[in-house]
Here is the input.
Amino acid sequence: MAANAILDTNARRLDAARFAHGYSHTHCQQYDSDQTCAWYHGSWQFLRLLDLVSTPAAHASHFDAQLERIANDTAFENILVSGSADSSMVQTIHEALAHRGSKIKITVTDICATPLEVCEQYARNAGIEITTLKQDVLEGLPQNAFDAIFTHSFMGYFNDENRQLLLRQWAGALRKGGRLVTVQRVRENYANELVRFDAREVDAFVERAEQIVQKAANDDFEKFNVVGMAKAFAKNFSNYPVRSAGQLRAMFEAAGFKLDLFEQQTTLGIEGVTGPSVPNAAGFYLIVAERL
Here is the structure.
């Protein structure tokens, strides 16, 4: 990518990060614990600018390859993005299928208004229309409505019981022959009920954020206290471990999917930084599943 293009992309990402940070404090989902998800959605895109979190970009070749498969297949028009921390998946799909114009319909669903508005903002700037659904995905999706579902590292937000329900919801939302394209991290035989940053990992995550912010000398990183965001993110983040590749495969098959691709791939990690949400050198599975 040319230098000017990189600068332009980073400028757009910074604008989106500023917007999400402000929007999250008044629109993020309220939970029973009396806490909102603003610590997550308000910081995610700043942390993405620092390359501290694992995003679809880390597995771009996987998503690009699957989009190339359907780029000229008119049987794939209605695409669902299930769960979206930012607009990166919408952008990936739009750029890959832009040549098909208005025949491509993109729907984004999430329980929180903030990422949906971020996706809407991207769509307005890109001159396209998308549909957004603010809902708990477990409470039902439009049946047989989509030709493909794209999502990234989403199953870790559900325990084993709800993960199986999630897969059934995805299967029901796809037409026969529709495809689910995702990436999921597997932590083989993980002992704890939840995956969290431990104290050492919090310190390493924050220290890396401090190093990048100091080197970048970006006024916005100081103005928005990105280091403070990194600390809050690391202390609050948790998800449910997927403990077995075999179990994950069995869940897909039980939900009515045929696995076309189920392949482990290494991802470039961050030296000296570990944690449940950072890029990791092993354990990610590239998945393409067809609804039977």
